[in-house]
Amino acid sequence: MGSPLSVAAPSLASPAGPQVAAASQAAMGAAAAMQYQSYAQRMCPRCSHQMIVVFRQPRAGWLIVLIGVLVCLIPFFGWILGPLMIIVGIAVWIVQKGKARYQCPGCNYST
Would the pLDDT of 9 be above 90? Predict the structure, then answer.
């Protein structure tokens, strides 16, 4: 009929030996230690709550837009420079990346 499964199927054991298994276990242990350390770093030092990531948007774009709106009130000079500043401010606001920081929901502590 056929050969038994143990003869037909190839062996699934790794041919490398115990050194490779020990190295992979050490690498997994190091990865687990790093994961625990990053978890412990996210604990609030004041109240021991888990801190959450909050992104803070830079304010440079909003300042340029606000100055551009105020400059628009100046006759002639502001009518040209004001809209340009508003466009540049909107571009800066879109292009700039926000900074990530940790904030505690329990006591509002932030880094």
Answer: no
Distance CA 89, CA 65 (A): 5
| Dihedrals phi, psi of 75, to nearest 5 degrees | -65, 145
- The per-residue pLDDT of the chain, averaged, comes to 75
Three-class DSSP category at 103: strand
Per-residue burial over 28-65, b = 16 or more CB atoms within 10 Å of its CB, e = otherwise: eeeeeeeeeeeeeeeebeeeeeebeeeeeeeeebeebb
Distance, CA of 29 to CA of 22 (rounded, Å)? 10
Structure tokens at 61: 């774009």
Render pLDDT for 43-80 as a digit per residue (tens, 0 to 9).
788 887 888 888 777 888 999 999 999 999 998 888 89
Q: What are residue 55's DSSP bridge partners?
A: 100
Question: Could you report the per-residue pLDDT of 79-109, keeping only the tens digit for each?
Answer: 899 999 999 999 998 888 777 788 888 888 8
The 3-state DSSP class for residue 101 equals strand
